[in-house]
Amino acid sequence: MPYRIGIDVGGTFTDFILIRRDGTLGLGKTPTTLEDQSLGVMRGLEEMARAEGRDLGGLLADTEIVVHGTTTADNTMIEMNGAVTGLLTSEGHRDEIDIRRGFKENIWDPAYPPPTPIAPRRRRFGVPERLDFRGQVVRPLDEDAVRAAVGRLKRQGVESIAVCLLFSFVNPAHERRVAEICREEYPEARLSVSHEIMPTAPEFERTSTTLVDAYVGPRLETYLANLESALRGAGYGRDLLIMQSNGGIMTAGFMARKAVAALGSGPTGGVMGACAVSRDAGFEDFISIDMGGTSYEACLVKGGRPTIRSFWNWQHRYLVGLPMVEMHSIGAGGGSIASVEAGALKVGPQSAKADPGPICYGRGGSEPTVTDANWVLGYINPESLCGGEFKLSGDGVREAITRRVGEPLGLDLVEAAHGIFRIVNANMANAIRRVSCESGYDPRDFNMVVYGGNGPVHAGKQAEELGIGRYLVPKTSPAFSALGLVIADYVVDIQRSYITPSGRAEADRVNTLLGEMETQALDDLRVAGLGAGDIDFRRYLAICYPGQTFDLAVPARVTSDGRLGEAELRATVEAFHDLHEETHTYAARDEEPILRAVRVQAVGRTPKPPLELADGASGSLEDALRARRPAWFDGGYVDTPVYDGDRVSAGQRIEGPAIVEERFTTIVLYPGHRAQIDARGNYHVTVEA
């Protein structure tokens, strides 16, 4: 089997994983180049090639697949520096995006500001036209008004246009004609058309999703084009594949047309990797946590598969109505900046990122960060990271923590550093509560799968606080999201609106929609070159009770040929009652549910390479002892053994307090914690109650 390469671009580091022909793994890490992420990607690939004793061209020519998780779309929304965007919508509805269903993230703060507008009101135009809910023309499209609106957008320097007309998900004729006029009058502008991006009701969700696609699309297209060009120039001759927010991969060309599906791309890869590793470890209910340099993501997985939320996904204060792996993200990473505001210690969400980075990186950083606090507490190697490749310096660390945190709060250096450590741990524990307790789950019933460069430093304290008795740190933890990318399947997720009381739903109509969507999915997957036997279809009906805003995706009960008869339709509706009771603790079985949409998820299975360890270590635990150093445990510095992760071997057990230094991460075992190393080099950590 040729090489397979996964690349995950984070806010601080870009991680690489290479799967060799024999299934052994190679890891790489390089600072993210924020000005152009493709530069850091190509630099990291060159380093991976040198580590393999090859030139870059030879490595890429012998590479079967390159899968990329990108933060370009997320960073665009975080920084709100996307394309100059305009909106064309039905007359009288241009303020839909501002009304946003009356939703407000903080209902207790009357002064809470609205989100930064993607398309200010002056760049939103309503055009005369109207379809009714059946898709029949009530008022013909005024093409002259469309041309006039496009002309005004052109004069305003709009780079991307979102088109969202009423009931276009039932009949897209008017929307298609508006798109044609846009291409005639302003071919330079990128187009996002709602019936192609999200062909379902309701209107606000469709408008918001289409606007986000228009906003992030040009920047993502440019980035992917640059990266593809660089890869081709270096010798890679296949399609670049991108992780989607639904947990599947698709080609860069597909993602350029549907850029909004790239939101959450990188963290999603980590969740998919966690699912694979947890199955191998013998458990399927867990909470995955990913702590990198800039952010922290938590995701609850039950039964081996993450929850895919298909509707109410708020991303960076805008709603995205596409299927997404449900996770909670906060600004808590190694680069999170500590400050004192109004007499209280605050950590994050602002980050030092890769440039200048934490003070101890020695690159000009001046703000104290979580990594700097960990340096003071002795948890990380005081001289280097990444196996010595990344040199650290304590110059200015103590002074900055004391001046910026200690003195305002009346604390000494160590108290201030420990305060930073405790605050960021509390923030991350709250994120875990968000995905577990707020969904009706007790975190004590779950294991944790911990990854990211900083996750294993802090996970033990989160486990203690939440009562979680066991967590797993994979050997590939520091590049775990990249691992999830290379073992992911192709996924195309398509949904069509069909709104009717369930008692009036027609099985023939559902089957027609299923057939159309499956045909479209096969067409989208043609670029993957998969055989018919490699594609599975998962069929869902979106159902809710009358008056409910949110629906549930209910797996459709189908016959062996993938169709629904009347009996299967009734069985699916009954399954909705059961799923609603499981999810929300009650079911209104005397009410007639509403069918709102039909959904097909086409999964193109990719070959899964065997994941084996390279150069398995042997010898005693004493042979793996690298050094001893003072580290802060239970209120004081303790002389702590530090082990070389490359020299610990399967079957060994390490008792805390102890520190294990892997090449790209550090595992901190707190007092009462024990780590058992399995055959693949993963650390199974148990926490004493």
Strand content: 25-35%
Q: Return the CATH topology of the domain at 81-207.
A: Rossmann fold
Helix content: 25-40%
Distance between the termini: 45 Å
Low-confidence spans: pLDDT under 50, at least 5 residues?
Answer: none
Question: Can you name the CATH architecture of the domain at 81-207?
Answer: 3-Layer(aba) Sandwich
Query: Rounded to an integer, what's the Rg over CA atoms?
Result: 26 Å
Question: Mean pLDDT, as a whole number?
Answer: 92
Q: What sort of overall outline do the alpha carbons produce when their principal axes are compared?
A: globular
Structural class by helix and strand composition: alpha+beta
So what's the oligomer here?
single chain
**How many strands in all?**
37
Tell me about the biggest sheet? 9 strands, mixed
